[in-house]
Design a protein that fits this description.
five-stranded antiparallel β-sheet; alpha+beta; 149 residues
């Protein structure tokens, strides 16, 4: 795991920055998907029409747009990961922050749209294994909740 471990507070301080980058990556991914769809349709037309070719300049332009947007995704994800967190899923907006939970390496888990970080999971558990964090605001312990160290 990375050398940096985040407290819940540290991770939450980064959420506005990360969310901005995540939205940019999602927009670039939509551009890639749209361009790829156009290229796939053009390839299908070529095969179905037996040698009928769409405009070469349009294909070159669409491929260049796709490649540019792909490069922008990589750049944007790199900016997110430079903070020390991990992008797990661009479309769903899943971000993990390395942390120590009850003395064990784990991830604080945030999903785009969540107001704050309220979940964590073990290194191998993933999103499906998320558990609620104990926010320390009450003396009652919820089953399955844990404290960030």
């Amino acid at each position: 795991m990375s050398g940096k471990y985040f407290s819940r507070h540290e991770a939450e301080q980064l959420l506005p920055l990360i969310e901005g980058f995540l939205k940019q990556a999602q927009e670039h991914k939509q551009s890639v998907d749209a361009a790829q769809s156009e290229l796939t349709k053009a390839a299908s037309r070529i095969m179905v029409l037996g040698g009928s070719f769409p405009s070469y300049s349009d294909l070159v332009r669409t491929k260049a747009e796709r490649d540019h947007a792909s490069n922008r995704i990589v750049e944007t994800i790199s900016k997110i990961q430079e903070t020390g967190c991990l992008v797990k899923d661009i479309d769903a907006g899943l971000i993990d922050f390395p942390s120590l939970i009850e003395g064990q390496e784990a991830f604080l888990c945030w999903k785009q749209g969540e107001r704050r970080i309220e979940f964590w999971h073990g290194l191998e558990d993933g999103f499906a294994g998320r558990k609620r964090l104990d926010d320390g605001s009450s003396d009652e312990s919820t089953s399955g909740s844990s404290r960030v160290q």
